[in-house]
C-alpha cells in the first residue's frame, strides 16, 4: 500500500501541530538503492477506549512514509469515539475490526494472525512511532539478515504528548534478563521477525499485565536481539494506562512465570533475591495504601524467607 502524503490525511484537530499532526517523515523511494524491495513491516495496534490518543498513534504510523507498510487495528469493542477515528483513516488501514475479545494479549495475537509482513511491531493505542523510525528499522534488518529482533530506544511522554524522559532498553544476556523482575527490554521500541512467532509461539493470553516480559523471556533465550541507540518510539504515561494501575499485579505475574521458567534452574535463587528486594522497594512507595504495602512485604517474604532477618523488613512492617 502506497503511504499517504500529509495533505491526503484528514486535517488535524485545531491547535495540534508538529509530529505527527503537521509533519511527516521524508518520503522513501519504492525500492532500495540495490533495486530490492523494502522489507514489509506489519504494525498491530490493540485498542480499547483510547479515543483521546489513538488518532495520534494512527498518524504516527501512516506518516512514516514507509513504502511497504501493513497497518492492522484490533479493537475490543470500544464505546467512546475510537471507531469514528479509525473510520477517518480507513483507506490506509489494511485491516481493522471492533469486537469483544479476551483482553490485550488476545487482541495482539489476533493481529499477528492477520499480519503478512517480514517484520512485526505491536504498538499500543496510546503510544507513538517517531519520525523515520521504520526506515531505520528496515535498514537494520536488511543489513543484519541473521537477526530476528531489533531493539531501539523510546521517549516517555505525558498525556499531552510532552517529553518527560527516556525509556531505554539494554539487553546483555538471557541470564541477566530472567534474573530481574524489571523490564530490561521495552516492547514499545522492539521489532520482531515474523519467523520468531512461528518458532517461539504467540503472546501468552493468560498474562494480563506482564505479557511482554514473559514474551521476551522466551524469545531471547535462543535469539540474541540486535540493539540500536536510535529513539524509534514514544511510551505514553497516563493515569488510565494498565501498567500504572496494576503494577503490583504485574510483578505477581512475573514471579509466577519466572518460577515456571526457572524451575530446577540454578538461576532461580538469584531471581528470587532480586524479586524480594523489588517488593521491599515497592512497599516504600508513598502512593501505595496500607493494604498494598502489606501485600508487597508478604510477597518479599515469600520470594526470600531470609528477608525477615533484614532490619529494613521490620522497619517497613512497623512503619
Describe the protein.
With 319 residues, this protein is of the alpha/beta class. The protein has 2 domains: 6-241, Spore Coat Polysaccharide Biosynthesis Protein SpsA, Chain A, CATH 3.90.550; 262-318, no CATH class. It is 37% helix and 17% strand. Strands 1, 2, 3, 4, 5, 6, 7, 8 and 9 form a 9-stranded mixed β-sheet that branches. The longest helix has 16 residues, at 268-283.
Structure summarized in a few sentences:
Helices cover 37% and strands 17% of the residues. The chain has twelve helices and nine strands.
Q: How far from one another are the termini?
A: 60 Å
Q: What integer value in Å does the Rg equal?
A: 21 Å
Described by strand count, sense and barrel closure, the largest sheet is: 9 strands, mixed
Strand portion, in percent? 15-25%
Overall tally of domains: 2
Write the layout of secondary structure elements.
Layout: E1 41-47, H1 54-62, E2 69-75, H2 82-88, E3 95-98, H3 104-114, E4 119-122, E5 128-129, H4 133-143, E6 149-157, E7 163-167, H5 174-178, E8 190-193, H6 194-200, H7 211-222, E9 226-236, H8 242-245, H9 247-261, H10 268-283, H11 290-303, H12 311-318
Helix pairs in contact: 9-10, 10-11
Amino acid at each position: 500500500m502506497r503511504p499517504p502524503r500529509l495533505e491526503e490525511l484528514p486535517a488535524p484537530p485545531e491547535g495540534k501541530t508538529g509530529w505527527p499532526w503537521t509533519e511527516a517523515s521524508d518520503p522513501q523511494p519504492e525500492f532500495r538503492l540495490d533495486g530490492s524491495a523494502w522489507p514489509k513491516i506489519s504494525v498491530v495496534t490493540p485498542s480499547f477506549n483510547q479515543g483521546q490518543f489513538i488518532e495520534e498513534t494512527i498518524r504516527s504510523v501512516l506518516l512514516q512514509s514507509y513504502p511497504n507498510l501493513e497497518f492492522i487495528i484490533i479493537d475490543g469493542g470500544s464505546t467512546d469515539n475510537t471507531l469514528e477515528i479509525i473510520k477517518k483513516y480507513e483507506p490506509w488501514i489494511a485491516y481493522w475490526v471492533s469486537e469483544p475479545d479476551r483482553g490485550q494479549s488476545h487482541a495482539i495475537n489476533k493481529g499477528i494472525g492477520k499480519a503478512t509482513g517480514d517484520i512485526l511491531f505491536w504498538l499500543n493505542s496510546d503510544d507513538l512511532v517517531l519520525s523515520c523510525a521504520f526506515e531505520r528499522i528496515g535498514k537494520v534488518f536488511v543489513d543484519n539478515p541473521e537477526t530476528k529482533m531489533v531493539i531501539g530506544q523510546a521517549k516517555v511522554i505525558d498525556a499531552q504528548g510532552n517529553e518527560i524522559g527516556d525509556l531505554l532498553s539494554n539487553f546483555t544476556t538471557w541470564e541477566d534478563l530472567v534474573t530481574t523482575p524489571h523490564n530490561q527490554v521495552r516492547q514499545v521500541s522492539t521489532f520482531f521477525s515474523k519467523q520468531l512467532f512461528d518458532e517461539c509461539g504467540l503472546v501468552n493470553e493468560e498474562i494480563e499485565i506482564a505479557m511482554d516480559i514473559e514474551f521476551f523471556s522466551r524469545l531471547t533465550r535462543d535469539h540474541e536481539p540486535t540493539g540500536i541507540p536510535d529513539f524509534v518510539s514514544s511510551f505514553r504515561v497516563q493515569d488510565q494506562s494498565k501498567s500504572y494501575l496494576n503494577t503490583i499485579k504485574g510483578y505477581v505475574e512475573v514471579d509466577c512465570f519466572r518460577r515456571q521458567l526457572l524451575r530446577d534452574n540454578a538461576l532461580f535463587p538469584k531471581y528470587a533475591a532480586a524479586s524480594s528486594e523489588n517488593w521491599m522497594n515497592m512497599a516504600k512507595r508513598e502512593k501505595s495504601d496500607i493494604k498494598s504495602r502489606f501485600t508487597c512485604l508478604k510477597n518479599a517474604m515469600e520470594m526470600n524467607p531470609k528477608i525477615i532477618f533484614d532490619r529494613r523488613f521490620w522497619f517497613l512492617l512497623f512503619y
